[in-house]
Amino acid sequence: MSPEVMALIAMILVICLVLAGVRLAFAFMFLAVLFGYLYRGPTILDLFIQKTYEVMQNEVLIAVPLFVFMGLILERSEAAERLFSTMFQLFGPIRGGLAITTIIISTLFAACTGIIAASVTMMALIAFPAMLKRKYDKGLASGVVCAGGTLGILIPPSVMLVMMGPMCNLSVAKLFAGAMFPGLLLSALYIAYILLVSWLKPEVAPAVSVAERTAEKKTLIIQTLIYMIPVFGLLVGVLGSILLGMATPTEASAVGALGAIIIALVYRRLTLETLKLAVYETLKITSMVFFVIVGAGMFTSVFLFMRGGAMVEALLMATGFGKWGILALMMFVVFILGMFIDWIGILYIVLPVFLPVAVNLGFDPLYFVELIAINLQMSFLTPPFAYAIFFLKGVAPPEVKTTDIYRGVVPFVALQAVGLALCIAFPEIIMWLPTVTLK
Amino acid sequence: AFAQTKTLIGASCFPLKSPLGKYGIVSWAEKVEAMSGGRLKIRLHEPGEIVPATEVLDAVRKGVVDVGMNTPAWQKGEFPAGDLFYTLPGGVFDFHDLFVWMYSGEGIKLQQEMYKGAVVAFPLGLTPPEEIWSTKPVKTLEDIKGLKIRAAGLSMELWKALGASVVLLPAGEVIPALRRGLIDAAEFAYPSMDYALGLHEVAKYLFNPPIHMGSNMFQLLINPKVWDGLAPDLKEIIKNAAIAATIEGYCQAWVDSMEAFEKIKQAGVQMTKLSPEDQKKAKEIAFKILEEKAKEDEYFKKVWESQKRFLEKIRPFYEFSKFDI
Amino acid sequence: MMAFVERIVRMLGKGGAWLVIPLNLVVLYEVFIRYVLNRPTDWVYDTAWMLFSALFLLGGGWTLQEGRHVRIDIILNALPGRVRLVWEIFFYVVMLIPIMAILSWKGVEYASYAWRMGERLSTTTWGFPSAPVKTMIPLGFSLVLVQGIVELIKNLRKLKQGRV
Ligand code: NA
Ligand code: NA
Fold this sequence. Notes:
heterotrimer; A: mainly alpha; globular; B: alpha/beta
């Protein structure tokens, strides 16, 4: 059997095993060892330890556990609750006001945390019940929480972008800068959609009665501003220091974690128990992520050893679609995989194979990688495998049915597709900020 | 005997399209194929594609791949003497010394001996001298004090001794870090590579001579079992293709750099040279560092002693023959 | 016996979890010493990646115990319990256990070479011994291995008792 055919079989098998419920990390490791052995014999086994050691020595990836830790502490700090409770009194009386507030707070927190688990859970716990209580449509409320929370992994800092940097040999700071405007664009699209819907169908996003206001409008504005200070402080400290060049993403993640701890201390929400839970949860997420990274590294090596990369490139070229056609095809593949496979899996199955093809076609690697990152936003919302929906379902009251959520996320997936299309058509949305701040 | 085709699988520590890869293992592989009339083919893989860039030695030793291009300085934890086959700081060896010591003196023999048969090693790839970029003018050694510099290898010790602080950064972060002021200076590579990367756009000053290092020399590693299985003529081809590739690549890198140097000048980069006194001081410090290192590791000492003996032999005639103007 | 193994795995996982605090502190220290005192260090760089490696390797076993290694069980959940159980047993017997055993064994070779040679880290000029951090590799994989064996036994018992 030719190595290319073996590579193709390995690729199909990895997708099959993952869909059959095999834990991602071990599906990768198993196939790497199996196919590596079949192709190269026992000497291949040493490669897997070298790959592990490579991941261990990767200084850039240290930002992952630190951003996770920061996000978890922030989630338990009550910063989001306080901000929401004043802002919703302020904007509640507007049609769709609660949904818009949710998106704004999601965007702010997206710029503070790097994981969607933290941001979706935060909004699902705070904003979701508030919207349901005020008779918002369950679907719309679900869509807003899922889409808003998902921004956490696109708007920097982002654990996903940290992982993409070393994979693609791109500066993480640059990736952060490139994801900023696409993230804000999506956020703006969501708000525009909410305004449109609540204007067309007032019953899905009713205005809250002014009677619910407990304080003067002026007081509320001041309170909102006060509660925004810590969030803004963190945002400027972390993002600002990376984008303005004062610190590396790893250093910024450590400063950010300290900032989150200080906020939790100020709000008197930091107990030993909170810290313990955050620390343990950080470990579980970190170990999960890094076992996948290590396993995927092993699998990718074996796949490329069998010249799988060249095979995929040849297959894509054989379509005769041309530069933009192939880009569209690759984006479509990522979207379809996004329905069934976890984003980490997609990243590690697809990116090492697609990126060289894209570069050969003449696309800027930064542009292409950011397009994948934006595309992956959809994967969090597209059933059957959708993290955002899982997290929301985990904390939503029982009267919210899964079908409500599915119905609610559809328009937001469409909005994400529009955002992706806009970024493809206008590369400046991605490329402008990295060009001015970082070259 | 009937000529059979054999394919060796190779890993590189440098991207194959970069000058270091192109003028190193890629050129070598092409020559091997041509010289052997196609009996020996080499299939090359990019760094990280199969083997991590820093693990090429281990991968060749264990037979994960058959051959590889490696930087000996990246395994200094296991082979501290590896640095000495790569480059020496402070102008102790200039870009001519290392090359001559390697090929005519004891270099090749000592390098092979260092690996104790774990791999078969030949020199492959030699670069023109490097240069140091900075965002602040550096005219004297005093100006180096307090500088935050990105460095690697033995030169890290020298920068520290000169009062600079050394920052470790992956290659991809150097340009953004210079632009953002995260570092004030960086040693990177030679003019054509630096120009291609755009270092002249982020750092307006360049200083030399390359007190951090002379030329860099890299290596070709072959798995000993693979080596033993090769016909004698193929072994000769492998060895000589490496010499040919090294010399050709070195000259080509100079040609590229001559053009690039002109462009860097035209870009308005200010170039300064350290005074002879400062150069001498840097060299003395580098000597001391090497002496210190020699105390820590026996094999380092052996190689360093060989290099010192070589310097004593080559310097008299070298100084006598070189123009002073 | 099984409870004892699980306790060890959990303890090492929890212990590893707390490493995030010193990790955070050393990186903060580097920020401080670089920006405030303008004197970067190399030991921080090495210490940071060693702490981070220990963190995720020590946690692999506990993460398995807690069922937190990411998986996509949508199709699986639609299948009868018995089929699920058999598939799970197949996973442990064919995939997880042999692979973790191989990686542990190779990791032992890798680490013991570093111990024998007295190898040092190549990343900076600090030159700290590389053996301790390399030992984390076989340790991490074998924690997953032993937890995997425990999970297998649990699943076999379930199958035997018909508790599906
Ligand atoms: Na974020
Ligand atoms: Na999905």
